[in-house]
Amino acid sequence: MTTRTRMNVYLDPELLKQVEMLALRRQVSKSAIVEAAVASFLSGDAGDRLEAAMSRRLDKLGRQIDTLDLDLAVLGETIAQFIHFWMAITPPLTGAAQSAARAKGAERFEGFMQTLGRRLATGDRFLKELSRDLDSLPDDPLPDESESAAMAGFLISPILFTAVRRRSPHAARYLLNRPNSGLS
Question: Are 177 and 88 within 8 A, CB to CB?
Answer without folding.
Answer: no
